[in-house]
Structures are given as structure tokens and as C-alpha cells.
Amino acid sequence: xxxxxxxxYYHEITPSxxxxxxxxxxxxxxxxxxFQKVEVFETESDLGxxxxxxxxxxxxxxxxxxxxxxxxxxxxxxxxxPESVLVIGGGDGGTVRExxxxxxxxxxxxxxxxxxxxxxxxxxxxxxxCGLTDPRVEIKVEDAIEFxxxxxxxxxxxxxxxxxxxxxxxxxxxxxxxxxxxxxLKEGGIVAAQSESPFVNKTxxxxxxxxxxxxxxxxxxxxxxxxxxxxGYWAWAFCSESVKPLSYLxxxxxxxxxxxxxxxxxxxxxxxxxxxxxxxxxx
Amino acid sequence: xxxxxxxxYYHEITPSxxxxxxxxxxxxxxxxxxFQKVEVFETESDLGxxxxxxxxxxxxxxxxxxxxxxxxxxxxxxxxxPESVLVIGGGDGGTVRExxxxxxxxxxxxxxxxxxxxxxxxxxxxxxxCGLTDPRVEIKVEDAIEFxxxxxxxxxxxxxxxxxxxxxxxxxxxxxxxxxxxxxLKEGGIVAAQSESPFVNKTxxxxxxxxxxxxxxxxxxxxxxxxxxxxGYWAWAFCSESVKPLSYLxxxxxxxxxxxxxxxxxxxxxxxxxxxxxxxxxx
Lengths: 283, 283
Fold this sequence. Notes:
Mean pLDDT of chain A: 97
CATH topology of the largest domain in chain A: Rossmann fold
Structural class of chain A: alpha/beta
CATH class of the largest domain in chain A: Alpha Beta
Largest sheet of chain A: 7 strands, mixed
Strand order of the largest sheet of chain A: 9-8-7-10-11-13-12
Number of domains of chain A: 2
Number of strands of chain A: 13
Low-confidence stretches of chain A: none
Radius of gyration of chain A: 18 Å
Oligomer: homodimer
Strand content of chain A: 25-35%
């Protein structure tokens, strides 16, 4: 069985032999960009519309907040005053939307290599992409590997909202790239990066953290549930030169953000760095 | 698409329109018992062998510890000296195996309605069922609804390791049953019950907790990841007359249990009662 839609069902089966199946509806958008196949389709499920890239699940209207709240608010709440934020990848706009909830934010740069992803999401996934038209947002349709090279001491927060470490996302999983990301941080800056499934992608996750640990003096991991990713469990790297996990949280800001979220709250935040034994052993 | 194996893949699609798919191998056991269809099959995946009942996923060799460590150790570690334990359902033996890791335990009663489940798991899932031959274990192939009626003040811990609230498990989700379970507890006793998926089964979970709250003065919820259940996220009820969540933990016992586990550790334990906003709203 190939990944993608066949006989009315979308399937994504990982190399480990299991994955997800969703009752598919009408295909709204399906084109090959310069980088990948971009597809948006309806589902006959509670999940609403789905975005896939190269037949791999990126996000759904019904569960996108599981991913976007976690990649944004965990690092953002560790910073005393995040003003300048860079989002790498994340063309669907969900991460930008969450970042914009923070009142301190003055500027968000979205650096996405594939303009077709942005355009398709603006048209077909408006509840996810809605933040992209905010005046604080600057969109750069560029390769982040090049973009980041000359950015020094510019961002309070960098969020690496990438695809998997194959295809156009591959170069975002290298020591050179992470070193440049570190240089782009202001003092007290924090990086969060999607870091694959602890259960399904044990080899990939080990490789990625081995590189991150070479670059960042503080490199930790937090996890949460994502219903539509195989295994339902996802990890993000939390990296910094000076900020330790759970070293800072402003209760008032936390309450404000919680009111706007379907998942995020203070208890949930505090619980995210507690990892299962098998994941601790890998890292 | 029907649940079960077809064209080389096992599918389980929930009424909400999405679910899991696993590359299936040889069917090792498939029979209709007096209660349900019992099936064990090989998979061509990291998950090893799988047990299904009425074509619904119960457990796999590859991820069973996600469920069994959580249903057992969270309540067990809240009790100062758990000696007498009742497991309701749980014919695969995984919950009993975890309970037996606690040195204080003198007696475990397994009350499973379907002897065929026990027999199939003893033959085909030995790494899961291995605890069932321990001399401390007494197996009762009986309907727990009847079994529990005359048990008063007998158990330190009752674990309701049931199927979903349809079919043979249905009567295990009623106020009358929960009332009898409460009566079966000794002073300081704790009940943990599998309570469906917070993401997929919002209606069922609300109904169940409404009943539990009528019966138990303390009724809380803890959650964890289960890769092979649709949505990958699962909840258990934690109920007691006197024991509050996170009110007790013996560090030394916790360390001992942690050494034997793939997931469970103190940090993970402490993090389990932190719930996402959407689940708090349901409960």
C-alpha cells in the first residue's frame, strides 16, 4: 500500500509497518511544486480538511492545535519578552497564528521554501493560515538554509516547523544549519524544532539530537500527543545557550494564552519535559 | 471499509472517520467465543503480534507496555502497601504482570469473562501473559458484574481493564457496577479504569465520568500515549474514597518499579494528571 489516497481512504504507513487511515473526501488542491507534491483534501471525519506534502500528513483542521500550540507556546513562555520570532517552514501558518497570540511580539518572519504551500493553505485552510495576513508578519519564500546564514543576533525565538528529514526539509537537520540558527539568536534566545516521533522514528530522533547537542549547551526534549501522526506521539527539541527548561514562566501571560488554547495550560506546560524511559535512553 | 484484516492490512476506523492501519501477517488464532471474536495475528511491523476482540485493537507485543504500565503503576504507587489487587477484564495478562512487580502484593485476582482470551494469550502472546502462572494469581473466568456483588472490603486496588462500552464490556460502565467496585475496596483503596480516548470518544468519556463522579468522592483522570489506539492518546479514571491524585509516592518503591519499565518513572508519573483544556472542559 502506497501513502496517499486510494479507494476512498488516505493512508500513511511508516517504514515500521503501521500508521493511520482517514476516510477521504474531495481533493481540493493537488499540484507538484518545485519541491514536492502539495495536496489539500476534505475528509469524511471529524478532522475536516487535511494538508499533505509528498503524501505525508502535515496538518488537519481537526487536530492542528495539538502541534501548533506545542511548538509555539512552550518556547515562547520560557522567554521573558519575545519580540522578534523566526518561523522556518510552517507554510500552513498555524505556528505563526499561535506566536501572534503573544502581545509582546512585534515581528514574525516566516521563511518557507515553497510558496505553493502558503498559497494553498491561504485558500483552503483559512482557520490555520489566518495569521499570515497580520501586519506583524513578513513572509520570505526562500530556502531557510541560505536565509539564516547572515542573520546574527536577530531573533528571540526560532521555531523550526519543518517536514521530515528527507526531501526539501533535509538540510534543516544538519549541524551547519543548527549552528547558523544559534548565531541568529539574541541573548536569552530559544529554539524549538519538531523532532519526529519518539516511538516510530527512534533512529532519526537520535541522529537529530546528537547534532543538536553538539551545537547547543542546553538541549532538551518535550513531547505531546498528535492524533493524526503515526503513533500519536511527538517530540520537539528545546535548545538554548542560556535558558533551561522550566526555568521561567510568567503566570499572568500563561493565563492569557491558556484562554485562547484548546490544549495549552500551566499544568500541561510543566508536564511536557517528563519523558518515558525508552525516550530518555535514546537521547 | 470494515474493521479487521483485508488485503494484507488491519484497519480500525472509529465512527469519527479516522483510525489506524497495520501491515498484517499470518493469523495465528481466530475464533468466535461465547462473547466475541477473538483473534491473534502476526504483523509485518515493529509491533509484533496483535490481539483483537470483535476486530477492535486490544494490545500488541510492540506497544503493550504503554497501556499496561499506566493502568497498573499510577494507582499502585499511590497506595502505601498494596497487598490485594483485583483486575477486571485484562485477559491478556499484561496488567497482572505489571501488578506483580510490586513486592508488597500477596494476591491478584483476575476476573475475565472470556476464558478463550486467556487461553489464546497464554499460547500466542507469552511476553504479555507471562504473569498469569504466578502463584499469587487466582484466575476467575466469570462475569465481573456478578463477581463483584458480594465482595466487601477486600481489595486495596481494583483495575478495570475493560474493552469498550459496547459488547461484553458494556455492563462495566454503569453506576451499579461502580458502586459495587467501591464497596469491594478496603480503606485507602484505589480504582483505576480505562476510560477511552479523550480525543476520539468525547461523548463516551463524558458519560463514564458523570457516572463515576456520582459514586466516588475523588474522581480524577490521567492520560498517556498509546501508539496503536486511534488518536494515540488514552485516559484512565483514578477513583477513591480518600486518596487524592499525587498525594503519595514512595521514592524507593518508585525507583525499583522504574528499573523494570519502558515508560514509567517518577517525572512521568507526576506529569500524568496534567490535562489539555479540551479534556478538562469535557470532564
